[in-house]
Amino acid sequence: MVEMRMLVEVETARLAALRRTREHLEAFHALLEEEEAVVPGEVERIAEVDFGLHHLIAMATGNFIYPLFLNSFRQIYTSLTKRFFSDPEVVSVVFGLHGDLGEAIEGRDEKRAMEAMRELLVHGRERLKSMIAEEERGQP
Predict the structure, then answer these.
(1) pTM to 2 decimal places
(2) Digit-coded pLDDT (tens) for 34-57
């Protein structure tokens, strides 16, 4: 899933930086404020806010196929991210990367937006691999 997200979401970040509207930015800032208000242990809420942010970026592309595509795997996405966000250290790292991504999109910096999304997804991939490996070592 992360490989697919890398293909799609790096491009949605680029397009969002080019095509976003004031309304998209307002919604993005509202989601970032919601992230700041979240308690790290509220894993379900964090997963929903995270999905909302990625969905909003897809909406900001102006191509409605991207948000439809993201919605098609929402259940799998949120299931994995709940597991991912069970680590409080991950929450602060991801929220920081969301801020970087938001700044790039707001500044219409498509290259920086792509880099920020790639960094976010690589971080997620590596952390999930590590979590799975830790769980496998703990099994008899």
Answers:
(1) 0.92
(2) 999 998 789 999 999 999 999 999
